[in-house]
Amino acid sequence: MSTQFRMPQLGETVTEGTITRWLKKEGETVEADEPLVEVSTDKVDSEIPSPIGGTVSKINFQEGETVSVGQVIAEIGDGIAVTEAPEQVQQPEQVQQPEQPEEAEKTIVLEPRNVEPQNVEPQNVEPTSEEATPSGDVNESRRGILSPLVRKLASEHHVDLTTLKGSGTGGRITKQDILSTVGQSPAAEAAAEVAAEPVPDQPKTAVAAPAAVGDEIIQLTPMRKSIAANMVASLHETARAWNTIEIDMTNIARLREKAGDAFKQREGFSLTWMPFLSKATSTALQKFPQVNSTWNGDGTITRKHHVNLGIAVALENGLIVPVVKGADGMNLVGLARGVRDVATRARTKKLTPDDVAGGTFTITNPGPFGSILSVPIINPGQAAILAFDAVVKRPVVITDEHGEDAIAVRQMVFISMSWDHRVIDGADAAQFLAHLKELLQEADFSSDLAGYISAE
Questions:
Q1: pLDDT in tens, 343-398
Q2: Catalytic-residue membership of 425
Q3: Catalytic residue among 248, 420, 425, 428
Q4: Which residues of 192-225 are buried (b: 16+ CB within 10 A; e: fewer)?
Q5: Which listed residue (215, 305, 354, 421) is catalytic?
Q6: How many CB atoms lie within 10 A of CB 405?
Q7: What is the C-alpha separation between 226 and 452, in angstroms, rounded?
Q8: Residue 78 among the catalytic residues
Q9: How many CA atoms lie within 13 A of 166 on its CB side?
Q10: Termini Cα distance of the chain
Q11: Helices 332-347 and 250-267 sit at what angle, rounded to 10 degrees?
């Protein structure tokens, strides 16, 4: 008995995925629900489990190859299905289904697990050109498994794919086959691509230095490519301006010290600065909805009167911005739990696509890495982003209740905001930050933490 596994659709606009790593080899056994393959797209990274147990009898695509949704990527023999294909994983209409195999053969669509979405807009899928599409004696199945990179290289170098004999599995034409035909090594091709890629906002004559002996050429992941494309687009499409303000966090530091032990014992994690910043930010955005707006591009601006707070989370290979929905309706403890939840699921690849959608404002927190002043790039689709840097002890001048000035050591932090001048004016930005400072320095958060503070 043979079971076919097809490339799942990891999002409504996703039509293909790149196999980043096979977790099992041909001939190895796999248990039901055991991770089988890792797939990356321009929107999500997924670890896909096997819905059946059995032996991996055939792997149709190798690591690094891009596969269209619906194509068979592997087959497992002697497997007994234990899960059905999820309804939400559907194949696009344009993917042609293969003819029904023999009764002993079964087809199951892989269910993605531990999805790691990116908060970016989907990229357009490169269409197949007539020049890069094999014809003649090359059959339809061969044409269907050509990756976009192979099609692009063939078109650029004017290679007739009908004359090539592929070295890949089942006669598949690979990138190396194209480069060998034109007499160029993969390393030289990669170096040429890097050198030829234009650098934004620099003269067209500026190119990267050629790779030298000992240099390392690294293929960008879909996540890295998406981050790069969206950050460059943000810089080109927004009129970015920037403000910063210095805030005394001493009172909050004392409150954290009072409630910290009981909070950690009851909640299972530490009471950090982020819940306080999130609460104050959500409150300030309600007073200044212009900062919580969207530039629509059609002569209108949408002011959001609810706050879905994006929290930037650093990962090993990139950055992701999961969203705490309805942040304006949460108290401090609820925000602490919400921020902890999305950050933990982001790092363990357990986010869903909905977890990164619908953000209205973003906070990035480079402080734990030692940064003391940041100028972040605005998240696409939003009007501003806040950077919370390191809280450090500094000597400052304070005024006591008698009006006398004195020098004291206080817990100080710089909070910066990048904002889109098409939507927000300097006065709005400055007033928003001033109100945020007032809330963080003077607001009484103790009522939210009353259950964690012991009576003195």
A1: 998 888 778 778 888 999 999 999 999 999 999 999 989 999 999 999 999 999 99
A2: yes
A3: 425
A4: eebeeeeeeeeeeeeeeeebeeeeeeeeebbbbb
A5: 421
A6: 9
A7: 42
A8: no
A9: 22
A10: 71
A11: 70
